[in-house]
Design goal:
heterodimer, A: 335 residues, alpha+beta, BirA Bifunctional Protein, domain 2, 2 domains, two-stranded antiparallel ribbon, 39% helix, B: 775 residues, Phenylalanyl-tRNA Synthetase, Chain B, domain 1, OB fold (Dihydrolipoamide Acetyltransferase, E2P), Phenylalanyl-tRNA Synthetase, Chain B, domain 3, 6 domains, seven-stranded mixed sheet, six-stranded antiparallel sheet, 23 helices, elongated
Chain lengths: 335, 775
């Protein structure tokens, strides 16, 4: 009896092994555990056995049937989970990707960092009035910056803004003090194009006005910004500068990443790149924006975003940025 | 501007402990940007003063001589020399065998058969002038055998300072001002200048200022009996090192004073000076300047006139006939001060920016003019001990510039600095820079010297700048802003722009471009399109501001067709429409002409997706009657949101497209981003989902020849049934359009009779509208 039961399981396994379709397995199933199968017959004979035989074989026969059913079930399952489709799973296509302009990516990084410090992003017009671009910013009528050769004046009496600093006045007018704004945007200078000069480029303006704002606060914001964008320890230096709209005024330079500070055409062989103009807001500018300089102090800064992008991505020719050439732009991706 | 450290040393007491090579890093962060520091004179050595004691012609040469020179050694040395000025008794520079010039070693070698031991040198060979006409000639009392570096200031450090960073510092346009800064930075004492005393016991010169608003001061002096017009060697070397050519003593001294004090000067030949008048030119007059160029004057140009003739363009350049002649022994010295703006405008208008105009543009201290003359006479007298002062120091100075006075409040200073400095520290810093300070309890009374008072230091903040930079910017501690929890989002445009850009670049694999705000003239010409609009002044190319963003990107489309047969680009940028700034989003899809339907549909779905995802709004497209002739007249669409026009989709017409590339199609999407920003996304409320199953029914409708989906859409929208959950177009084949309805009820499972009923009604509706349906 034991032998027979054992041989039933062995031959079941053998037959199942040669099954490739569900129907084959179902045939095998009915043959081995169906109504007319040998095991059913043996089970049927059980009632004719002696009490002793029943005790001896009852559970063995039952267990054998269960085992056979479970073997068939797992055989069915493994057939279902076996993928019948064959294909070359090593194929590897290049992916298509879109891209954001490097200036957009850098602007996002800078604004993200400033937002964490509580700045809000605002924007001003590219076609601007002399008042917002110069006069309100304490740039007197006969200042060289107002010359034709540096500024694009328009035939409707307006001009193309030469800096994003117009946002300082607009920001104060719109939102008053205290204030924490930044404003990325396109700016224009009447320049001949070469590898280092563009007539159309991007800056980001920043302005903070509050009670008791100090030069040290200005330094903090500048340093945090640069380390966030470049994510490495950079050599920076702050030196006196001159802008009509800030007093004191400073220039922040960073060591040229194109040449590593050794000197190259991009840094005019000096090893340093002028990146940020900044300073404490001139009292005349505060007044022009309707803010009381007796009560408030503040700082403002302008960062060359185009320059920053060039440094970050080691772009040596500024002209490619406005070329729209996809061969070049697609390298920059999204981040 | 080039600065000689030797010259600076002469103005600073006990300067031996200053590291002249490295001080300039500090100078950059205290005062102004240094662009370069280089040693000069270190490429030569073993050069001594030697006297020629024998001079015979070289037997094998028509110009060389064989010399015996005494250089202080036991025996004279034989040297072969080709210079024309060799003669017995001449003291010159002799480089010994083994010495170096320009880093190259000098050896004994035969010249046309005769051994030359070392060499006699010209100024150019020593790197101290560009003169190579002959060997150097030292004065007869020069000590033989002395190293030339001990005799002349050949070893020097030359520093280049960025002129731009000196724009606001008129006092730094001469060595003396730089020396004052260095002395203040290193805590040394600045030495006073040696000046000649001039007794005013003679006649005044005839000097008149016609426009005291433009000429603030004119100081003149006549000096006679000048016999020596030869510039001493050390001054020649200084001038050469800082980039000027030595001409003659009289001319060199005026330049020297400009380089020392920053005061431009002029020395005229006294014989031609009649009376001096400073006044404006007549419009249209022609005048030839010192450089031989004839220039057209205007009534804005301030002139120096001599008698009734022009004598020079004030503060810019003298005239051809004002040049000093070599045979004169009498000079007229001019030292004047002019309005900075006037000089700058004249220099710019004439395209003539000179060393003098560059300085006058910065608002020089008018109190310097007489000092400069006294200083020049002092130096002139050293070379001409018998000179005679032939006139009074004539000084026309209508309104004297006085020192400035500023009250600096300690409270304000402390806010800016973020720290408190002692009165002693503040006083010392400011006094080193030439300010005078009186300390009060809450403030400092500061007197501003006139060399800082012309424009640079006017208000308290200007003094704070001085204190902060002298304290050292590197000594400040970066401090975060104080916590302020006010929510500060004022504008959302930047975020919205980024959101759209990110979506286009990631979902549609598009490339963002940056372009110019003006139309590219070349491209307009190529496409044969004329544009009008706001124009840039003074430019003839690329001078029309764009009023159509997509069309302004056609030069970029042109560029990319050279490398790609299909591509998608976008930009968010400003256009000028009706004299106003307007922010626009442009998306351009470019592909082969055969794919027109695909990319046109893609353009529509991009727009739909954009508004659905970012604004939760449904777009309604309507047909566009386009006035712009370069777009296809029949394929334009207006993009409508909530019954407002938000933008357009256009196809560049075939003729224009062909001029860019053959067999291509360009679809342009323009969206008014100013309006886009103002759209508040609709909040859709939750809808209950029926617990009963829904049924999908597809109907294929056959459209008549020439009919478009719009017609069907209208018909479908008129068919109402409360069983309709939604319906949509799922496909087309030729003129067959398949519509899928999803039907259901919130109260029961639909029965066959409901569906049959719906179907019958629908087919009837379609047929009533003269369309057929596949049943």
């Amino acid at each position: 009896m034991e032998k027979e039961l054992e041989s039933l399981i062995t031959s079941l396994k053998d037959e199942l092994a040669s099954c490739t379709k569900e129907a084959d397995i179902l045939n095998v199933k009915s043959k081995y555990v169906g109504k007319k199968s040998r095991i059913t017959e043996i089970l049927g004979n059980l009632k004719n056995m002696t009490v002793e035989e029943k005790r001896k074989y009852g559970s063995l026969i039952n267990n054998t049937k269960k085992e056979m059913e479970s073997i068939i079930a797992s055989s069915l399952e493994s057939l279902e989970s076996k993928a019948n489709i064959t294909f070359d799973d090593t194929l590897d296509y290049d992916i298509e990707n879109g891209s954001l302009h490097p200036v957009t990516i850098v602007a996002k990084e800078v604004t993200d960092c400033l937002k964490k410090m509580g700045f809000t992003v605002v924007s001003g017009p590219e076609m601007e009035s002399e008042y917002y671009n110069f006069e309100a910013l304490n740039v007197p009528k006969d200042h060289p910056a107002r010359d034709m050769q540096d500024t694009y004046y328009l035939d409707n009496g307006m001009l193309l803004r030469t800096q994003t600093s117009d946002n300082q006045i607009r920001g104060m007018e719109n939102y008053g003090a205290p204030l924490r704004i930044c404003a990325p945007g396109r700016t224009f200078r009447n320049e001949d194009l070469d590898a280092n000069h563009e007539n159309t480029f991007f800056q980001i303006e920043g302005m903070v006005i509050d009670e008791n704002i100090s030069i040290e606060n200005l330094m903090y914001v500048m340093q945090e910004l640069l380390s966030e964008v470049f994510k490495t320890d950079l050599k920076v230096r702050l030196r006196p500068g001159f802008f009509p709209f800030t007093e004191p005024s400073y220039e922040m330079d960073m060591s040229c990443v194109i040449c590593g500070g050794k000197g190259c055409p991009t840094c005019k062989n000096g090893g340093w790149i002028e990146l940020i103009g900044c300073g404490m807001v001139h009292p005349n500018v505060l007044r022009a924006g309707g803010v009381d300089p007796e009560k408030y102090t503040g700082f403002a800064f302008g960062i060359g975003l185009t320059r920053l992008a060039m440094m970050k991505y080691k772009i040596s020719d500024i002209r490619v940025l406005n070329s729209g050439d996809i061969r070049y732009l697609k390298n920059f991706d999204i981040k | 501007m080039l600065i000689s450290c030797n010259k600076l040393k002469s103005h600073i007491k006990n300067n031996e402990d200053i590291d002249w090579l490295n001080i300039w890093n500090t100078f950059t962060i205290r005062t102004a940007e240094v662009e370069g520091v280089k040693k000069v004179g270190d490429q030569i050595d073993n050069i001594v003063i030697a006297e020629i004691v024998e001079c015979v012609e070289h037997p094998d040469s028509d110009h060389m001589h064989v010399l015996k020179v005494d250089c202080g050694e036991a025996e004279p040395i034989q040297v072969v020399c080709g210079a024309p000025n060799v003669r017995v008794g001449l003291k010159t520079a002799y480089i010994k065998v083994g010495g170096h010039i320009d880093g190259m070693e000098i050896k004994s070698r035969p010249l046309r058969g005769i051994l030359s031991n070392g060499m006699c040198c010209s100024g150019r060979e020593l790197g101290i002038s560009d003169n190579h006409d002959g060997i150097l000639e030292f004065p007869s009392d020069a000590p033989v055998g002395t190293d030339v570096k001990d005799f002349l200031p050949i070893d020097d450090i030359i520093v280049e300072i960025d002129n731009k960073s000196l724009t606001n510092r008129p006092d730094l346009w001469g060595h003396y001002g730089i020396a004052r800064e260095i002395a203040a930075i290193t805590d040394h004492e600045l030495l006073p200048l040696d000046l000649a005393e001039i007794k005013n016991d003679k006649q005044d010169l005839e000097i008149t200022i016609k426009d005291p608003n433009l000429c603030y001061r004119y100081t003149g002096l006549k000096v006679d009996n000048l016999k020596n017009n030869k510039t001493p060697l050390d001054m020649q070397i200084f001038l050469y090192y800082v980039g000027m050519r030595s001409i003659s003593l009289f001319v060199d001294l005026t330049n020297y004073l400009m380089l020392e004090l920053g005061q431009p000067m002029h020395a005229f030949d006294s014989r031609v000076v009649k009376k001096i008048e400073v006044g404006l030119a007549n419009d249209g007059d022609a005048y030839t300047t010192l450089d031989g160029v004839e220039r057209k004057l205007t009534k804005d140009n301030l002139m120096i006139k001599n008698g009734d003739k022009y004598f020079g363009i004030a503060g810019v350049m003298g005239g051809l006939d004002s040049e000093i002649l070599s045979d004169t022994d009498s000079i007229f010295l001019e030292s004047a001060n002019f309005n900075a703006g006037s000089i700058r405008k004249t220099a710019v208008a004439l395209g003539l920016r000179t060393e003098a105009s560059a300085r006058y543009e910065k608002s020089l201290d008018p109190n310097m003019t007489d000092v400069a003359i006294k200083r020049l006479v002092y130096l002139l007298e050293k070379e001409n001990p018998d000179l005679v002062i032939a006139s009074n120091l004539t000084d026309v100075y209508p309104t004297k510039l006085e020192e400035g006075h500023i009250t600096l409040h300690k409270k304000l200073l402390n806010i800016y600095m973020g720290r408190t400095l002692s009165d002693e520290v503040i006083t010392n810093m400011l006094e080193k820079l030439g300010f005078k300070v009186t300390v009060n309890a809450d403030s400092y009374e500061v007197t501003v010297p006139t060399f800082r008072a012309t424009k640079d230091v006017k208000i308290e903040q200007d003094l704070i700048e001085e204190i902060a930079r002298m304290y050292g910017l590197e000594n400040f501690e970066a401090k975060p802003l104080k916590l302020d929890l006010t929510i500060t989002e004022h504008e959302t445009i930047y975020n919205q722009e980024y959101e759209v850009k990110h979506l286009l670049a990631t979902k549609y694999d598009m490339h963002e471009v940056n372009s110019y705000i003006w139309y590219d003239t070349e491209t307009l010409k190529k496409l044969g399109v004329e544009k009008t609009g706001v124009k840039l002044l003074g430019k003839s190319e690329n001078n029309i501001l764009r009023d159509d963003l997509s069309f302004s990107l056609m030069n970029i489309v042109d560029t990319n067709f050279k490398n790609y047969h299909k591509f998608n680009i976008f930009e968010i940028a400003t256009i000028i429409e009706n004299n106003e700034n307007k922010r626009m989003l442009s998306i351009i899809l470019a592909d082969d002409e055969k794919n027109i339907e695909t990319i046109y549909m893609q353009a529509k779905s991009i727009v739909k997706y954009l508004f659905k995802i970012l604004k939760n709004k449904e777009v309604i497209f309507t047909n566009n009657v386009n006035e712009k002739s370069y777009y296809d007249a029949s394929l334009g669409k207006v993009i409508n949101i909530d019954n407002t026009k938000l933008g357009e989709i256009n196809v560049l017409n075939k003729g224009i497209t062909n001029k860019l590339a053959k067999k291509k199609v360009i679809v342009c999407i323009d969206i008014d981003f100013d309006k886009y920003v103002t759209i508040t996304p609709t909040t859709k409320l939750a809808t209950e989902v029926s617990k009963y199953p829904t049924v999908e029914l597809d109907y294929t409708i056959i459209m008549p020849e020439g009919a478009k989906y719009d017609t069907l859409k209208q018909v479908l929208s008129e068919f109402k049934s409360n069983l309709i959950k939604c319906y949509s177009l799922v496909g087309t084949y030729e003129n067959k359009y398949t519509i899928r309805y999803i039907l259901g009820s919130n109260t029961k499972t639909l029965e066959q009779k409901d569906l049959t009923n719906f179907k019958d009604r629908f087919i009837e509706h379609i047929k009533n509208n003269n369309l057929s349906i596949i049943e």
